[in-house]
Request: fold
Amino acid sequence: MDSRKLQFTGRSTYIVSLPKRWVEEMGLRAGDRVLIERGENGELVLRPDARGAERQVVKKLDITGMSPRQVERRIISAYLSGFDELRVTSRHRILPEQRAAVVDILRRILGTEILAETSHEIVINDLLDFKEIYPRSILRRMYVITEFMLKNAVESFLSGDEELARDVMARDDEVDKFYLLATKEIVEGLRRGGRVELEMPPEKAIHHLSVAKSLERIADHSVKIARVAAGWNGTCDEEALRRLYERVLENFVLAMKSFFSGDGELADRVLDSEEEVEGWFSRMLESAEEGQLALLILLDSLQRVYAYSKDIAESTLDMGA
Reply:
């Protein structure tokens, strides 16, 4: 066991030197990052930052005979498991529809691009640097976009603004990108064993993944509302509909605030409102006239948004348990 004297420098900083042998064995140099984690008994654990380590993960994907949808699914799987370079190959010529599937899925994945291409191979690089990207910050960005989509989707339905509806649909890909990125980050962090990499205990990572999925689904329902907005020309109690929507939105916002702050009381407010909110839905459904499909789709999507908000609130409570 090595012993080092604690030194004081500047006005508020304590420093301790590291054993040279350990630094060399870890392959570290001046300027490299070292992760410091506090244990349950107050001890400090030091280890090299896996994010800063040089690595080159090259994977191969044979798409011979695959349909475009199969190609998309395999590339997403490879992305989530992590690669620096992905070589998509075919024993025969890569078909135009297969190449189109590759291009389309890369458009929906952050940080990837085609580096080289032949008739039998497409080389994809993952250029995104994860050193300063963490799941929590990704979820915040997802939330901002999703809340914006929900507000504009309902407004486009009530006002008949088709341009607003198109804007909602255009933003769905952005939410999907961040969902895949959050999933990739959490999977990589857990594989590295990573409280430090994830900025959270590993047992809480699953709740962040659950919230990311809820946000992705809320964005999907915002798109569903936007798609039927142009077809809505019926009548309803618009004031009651707005109050219901505002109650759903309020609970969504409260759920996310509870999650980011760890505030169990806010989470309880979301969950305790279930009887009231479901009562609003029942009354609106009873008053809907036969054949008002667009209105029924709107109500169904808002009901699901509230359900996902409850899931987020429950994740807050589960993390604090």
